[in-house]
Each structure stands twice: as structure tokens, then as C-alpha cells.
């Protein structure tokens, strides 16, 4: 969302731009397959990947394609990250890539060395701190990558994190969510790190790539069973858990007014107070 415009991809193979105030269509761009990736907007440029194995930079004002990268063998379903003139994203072809944000030229690509496509870093949204990119993937490793060269700095599977990742507000910790009950934190560092702490949150078996979002001293995330959790990373305790639905919760969004908004896979949207969890609308 920017300049009273909302940009989104659709399963019908289009990227749409709508007016936030009126809901009217501003422009649409047809692609060759479903667009399941989320957009990232910088200035007047929209960056988004699709299931046609292409990644595009689109003019926000006109909807025209500025450049497109076609060197992939799998779809893009996550949100790209912009950092120091690069756009960084994963795809279901085993690779994490960094492209020049202005030209679309490939700067580097990384993979974990496995031929298993299901281990691709495709569902997580990378987090970056001090020139280090952090990702998690279904191989249950957390990986730190040099943002300038794309080389592996370290990998660790001591906590078996999967596809959920986040970063603390001060950039000192990377958060992860395991497949059974536990959230974990690692110090951000170019040298290999063990888990700094682990917290049993009691959410059971879990596999949803919902990012962990820190705001106002709490960390929020959703789960496959329709529950939003809040943990206190300083006290290392679960603050609350609030069930909003029976389907998967997408990455929550923290609002400025002490509220978070959460959506589920069945199309439900819920507004919650951060402290305590009070449902306002659904």
C-alpha cells in the first residue's frame, strides 16, 4: 500500500492496483499464471513474483513492467525484501536470489546444496541485519548468508525451526518457530550461533510460515489452528493466545494504535488489541 493505492496478486493470473479510498481499479497486469507472491513497494516501483516463474518490477503509477527476471524454475509465493539496492527473495526451485533492484540483473543466488526442491527457502520472508541475511526453510535449518556475496556464513538446526522467522525491533535477535510448541531466538551475528533461548508456547504441531512480528515489547505470530499468540521476549513467557478461527493464520500486521490485524486462509480478518487480546471486528 502506498499513495492511496493497494497492490495485490491474484489467483486469476493478474496483479491489481486499487484505489484505497474508492476501491476502483487503477490498473491490472496479466501474467501467465497465478500470482501468489506478495508485493513490496519502494518509491514508484512494485516488486512481485509469480507462479509463472518470473519476478517483475512494475511502475506503480501505470502498471507497466520496468523489468522482469526469468531465470527461475519454480514459483515465487513470498514477499521480497529490499536492501541496499538489492531485492532478495526465495523461489520453489531451491534458490534464494538477490537481484539489482534497478535493472533486475542477478547479483547472486544461494541454495543449501540439497537437490530436494521441497527444502527451498520459498515460504519464509528473509530478515536482514548488518549485511547478513537470515532464512529458515523446510530442511529445519536457520541459515545466515553474506548479503554482499551470497555465501553461507553459518547454518544451525539445533532448534529445528521451519519456515517462520522474524527479527527483534533492535536487530539483536532473530526469532523462529519450530514444528512443535516452541519459539526460539538466535543472536544476530556473522559467526555461528546456538539458540540464545527457547520458549514452550504450547501451540502443538505447527507448520504455517507466519512471521514473528515484534511491536511494543511483544512478539506476535499465528498458527495453523487459527490462534494468534503473543510472547514477551524479555521475560520469556507467553503473554496470551487468542483463537480467531479454525484455519491457518497469515503473518499478522502491527498497527500504530496498539492493535494487530490478522487474516486467515478462509478469508476472515480480525482486529485485536495487543494487550490484552480483545477482538474488535471480524
Automatic annotation (TrEMBL):
Endpoints of the signal sequence: none
Pfam family, one: PQQ_2
Protein name: Outer membrane protein assembly factor BamB, contains PQQ-like beta-propeller repeat
Start and end residues of each Pyrrolo-quinoline quinone repeat domain: 3-198
Domain of life: Bacteria
PANTHER family: CELL SURFACE PROTEIN, OUTER MEMBRANE PROTEIN ASSEMBLY FACTOR BAMB
InterPro entries linked to this entry: PQQ_b-propeller_rpt, PQQ_rpt_dom, Quinoprotein_ADH-like_sf, WD40/YVTN_repeat-like_dom_sf
Gene3D superfamilies: 2.40.10.480, YVTN repeat-like/Quinoprotein amine dehydrogenase (2.130.10.10)
Amino acid at each position: 500500500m502506498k499513495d492511496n493505492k493497494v497492490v495485490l496478486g491474484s489467483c486469476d493470473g493478474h496483479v491489481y492496483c486499487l484505489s484505497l479510498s474508492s476501491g476502483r481499479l487503477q490498473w491490472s497486469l496479466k501474467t501467465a499464471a497465478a500470482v501468489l507472491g506478495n508485493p513490496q513497494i519502494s518509491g514508484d516501483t512494485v516488486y512481485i513474483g509469480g507462479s509463472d516463474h518470473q519476478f517483475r518490477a512494475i511502475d506503480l503509477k501505470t502498471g507497466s513492467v520496468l523489468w522482469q527476471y526469468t531465470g527461475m524454475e519454480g514459483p515465487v509465493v513470498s514477499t521480497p525484501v529490499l536492501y541496499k539496492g538489492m531485492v532478495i527473495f526465495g523461489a520453489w526451485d531451491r534458490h534464494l536470489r538477490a537481484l539489482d533492484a534497478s535493472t533486475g540483473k542477478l547479483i547472486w543466488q544461494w541454495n543449501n546444496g540439497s537437490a530436494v526442491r521441497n527444502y527451498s527457502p520459498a515460504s519464509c520472508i528473509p530478515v536482514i541485519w548488518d549485511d547478513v541475511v537470515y532464512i529458515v526453510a523446510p530442511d529445519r535449518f536457520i541459515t545466515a548468508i553474506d548479503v554482499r556475496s551470497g555465501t553461507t556464513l553459518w547454518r544451525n538446526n539445533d532448534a529445528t525451526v521451519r519456515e517462520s522467522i522474524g527479527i527483534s525491533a533492535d536487530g539483536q535477535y532473530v526469532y523462529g518457530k519450530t514444528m512443535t510448541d516452541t519459539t526460539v531466538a538466535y543472536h544476530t551475528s556473522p559467526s555461528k550461533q546456538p539458540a540464545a533461548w527457547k520458549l514452550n508456547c504450547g501451540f502443538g504441531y505447527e507448520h504455517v510460515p507466519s512471521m514473528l512480528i515484534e511491536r511494543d515489547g511483544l512478539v506476535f505470530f499465528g498458527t495453523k489452528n487459527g490462534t494468534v499468540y503473543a510472547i514477551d521476549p524479555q521475560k520469556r513467557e507467553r503473554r496470551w493466545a487468542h483463537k480467531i478461527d479454525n484455519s491457518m493464520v497469515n503473518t499478522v500486521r502491527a498497527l500504530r494504535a496498539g492493535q494487530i490485524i490478522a487474516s486467515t486462509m478462509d478469508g476472515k480478518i480480525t482486529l485485536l488489541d495487543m494487550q490484552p487480546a480483545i477482538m474488535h471486528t471480524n
